[in-house]
Write a structure and sequence with these properties.
By secondary structure, the protein is α+β, with helices and mostly antiparallel strands. It has a domain at 44-118: Cupredoxins -  blue copper proteins (Immunoglobulin-like, Sandwich). 18% of the residues lie in helices and 39% in strands. The chain contains one helix and nine strands. The strands form two sheets. The protein has a five-stranded mixed β-sheet, with no helix packed on it. Residues 23-35 have low confidence and may be disordered.
Length: 119
């Protein structure tokens, strides 16, 4: 009789363990993590406007600024796709670029074209 009880207990333990193992394991939900890159050391770049743009192309980082320095005596009209800026003679205009992309512009009076590439 003791053997039968021992066998029954052993069978119950085996069946109970097997049922626990067969239960599906629930997967944990992982939320996507989006890291926003902030430029820890933003820089200011200068573009001189005379009869040419110097430099005509700039590669900068998100968060950097560009200063357009009109060294001419007369005004300059910078035309971007999204806005226009009139810079009086011998003055500066500054813009900080917060979005990645390519920004094309031209100087209306001289037909010079420039590109700001923001990475």
């Amino acid at each position: 009789m003791k053997h039968i009880i021992l066998i029954l207990i052993t069978l119950l333990l085996i069946v109970g363990c097997a049922q626990e193992i067969q239960q599906p394991i629930q997967e944990s939900t992982t939320l996507p993590i989006v890291l926003e890159y902030n430029n820890p050391n933003p820089k200011t770049h200068v573009v001189s406007i005379d009869y040419n743009l110097n430099p005509p192309t700039l590669n900068i980082k998100k968060g950097d600024s560009v200063v357009w320095s009109n060294i001419r005596d007369s005004y300059s009209n910078l035309i971007f796709a999204e806005f226009d800026v009139i810079i009086p003679g011998k003055t500066n205009v500054k813009r900080t670029f917060l979005s990645k992309g390519e920004y094309y512009y031209n100087v209306k009076e001289t037909s010079n074209e420039g590109i700001i590439r923001v990475n």
